[in-house]
Target: Threonine synthase
Amino acid sequence: MKYVSTRGITTLGRFTDVLLMGLAPDGGLAMPERVPTFSAQELEGLRHLEYPDLAYRIMRPFIDDVPDADLRRILRDTYTPAVFHSKDITPLTPLGSSGLYLLELSNGPSLAFKDVAMQFLGHMFEYVLEARGEHLNILGATSGDTGSAAEYAMLGKGRVNVFMLSPHGRMSAFQQAQMYSLAEPNIFNIALQGVFDDCQDLVKAVNADHGFKARFDIGAVNSINWARVLAQAVYYFKAYFALNLPAGAEADFSVPSGNFGNVFAGYLARRMGLPIGQLIVASNENDVLHEFFSTGVYHVRPAERVAATSSPSMDIGKASNFERYLYAITGNDAPQTHGWWGEVGQGRPVDLRGTPHWDAVKASGLRGGRSTHADRLNTIRRLDQTYGRLIDPHTADGVLVGEVYRRPGVPMVCLETALPAKFEETVQEAVGRLPERPERFEGIERLDKHFDVLPNDVETLKAYIAQKLAGRAQG
Ligand SMILES: Cc1ncc(COP(=O)(O)O)c(C=O)c1O
Ligand SMILES: N[C@@H](CCOP(=O)(O)O)C(=O)O
Model:
């Protein structure tokens, strides 16, 4: 499979090239030149597969530059019950007989859905870098969960260093402790004076300096990296088959959304032929995506208008993967996508009303909705009382908006994107007690914290990376 950029470059290479590249040289995002599809009969053949085998079948058409036996081994090593604390890896749990289901994605090492793809990236990076005799310096941006998932996945990986930008003071106490308590020599935590969007913009700005990127082997672990999206598509298939529906029957999915990577993975699964009816894009108070799906106008918010909410990992004003979506709904029109994203970058709206692109949006199955602090408290409380199930604030956003779009007789799968233990304060506010915390995280907030505070400035960041890597080379 060849990969192209959403902004026009048609020769990005094959899977392992885009894995290491992260962002395309023209600033765009990697996309496969075509999306392979499964026929109804082929889908039936996937129904009973174990997670690693299912992942192999979904990913294989996109990964044709890794020998078969190696890919199978990597997937078997990645998706183990020991790491994900469940033999199903991403189990599906019904909420009573409501037709609502929770897709449990957060039983991995960092207690958030990011682990599912990030563990795969960790194994894949190790394999490819070893084969090529190369090293990678990952530069990432987190609003709370990507950071710890990436750092846990890269622990002890000799060929990888991680530089992780997080918005200073904006994550939950638990999220901060998870990341900042790590004292590994290959992990560098940077608390940026800004919001998540500033962190993500800096990642893109560093990548845009091609000389710096090449000299320091800069790579990515955010969902701008195609491998993240691809690995996330697998659990939509797993969940669909776990519903045990008759062949061809539709299921709907509700996805707490921020950077739009998770829901784009669902869209990919739908494009591959999985009978997904609706894909619900659930936003919090930072509701740019909701605004787009209800009006046809996409207008990002400047950093100073991104609110700090009680589902902080979704405090995102400019969703990177929306660029992939625009590219897809235009039928892979890179010049059009590039033009639009240029407007977005200038803070100007992209208005699809009255165009064929808006019809394409409607046909794509995506719908939007928003939730507020009071909504998520009520939803957490209601699910606890009704089903004895405690959920985190992000999952609550997904459940609440998902309920709005229920269709008679069609199951609604709500993605559980984090465990409540990561957001104790809000959960306690909702139900008056603390959520359970896995034993390995007891007292984590009391551990020493290791991080550096940096201003929102690309040159300062580049100097920081260069200096830390020089230190690593000497040590
Ligand atoms: C707990 C949680 N829920 C939802 C999201 C939003 O997912 P996405 O950025 O893929 O839209 C994130 C962050 O990405 C998250 O950490
Ligand atoms: N919500 C994320 C933000 C980054 O998302 P990603 O999926 O693009 O890595 C976080 O918690 O860090």
About this structure: The chain has a mean pLDDT of 97.
